[in-house]
Amino acid sequence: MNSTEIKGNWNEMKGKLKQQYADLTDDDLLFAEGKEDEMLGKLEQKLGKSKDEIKKMIADL
């Protein structure tokens, strides 16, 4: 899944991530254009997973 697909489906994915990982906040999942790496970094820290693992997890939602 590429950045364009993530942006297009982000609200749906955000809801699924919050259901699966209750400790994630809206701030953690803030996705603004040009902020993909920052958001992935926050998720890496919060979930203790690598960037590749997070991208795969998002793609699998």
Automatic annotation (TrEMBL):
InterPro entries noted in UniProt: CsbD, UPF0337_stress_rsp, YjbJ, YjbJ_sf
UniProt-listed Gene3D superfamilies: YjbJ
Sections of the chain in a coiled coil: none
Every CsbD-like domain range: 5-56
Family: Belongs to the UPF0337 (CsbD) family.
Protein name as it appears in the record: General stress protein CsbD
Lineage: Bacteria, Pseudomonadati, Bacteroidota, Flavobacteriia, Flavobacteriales
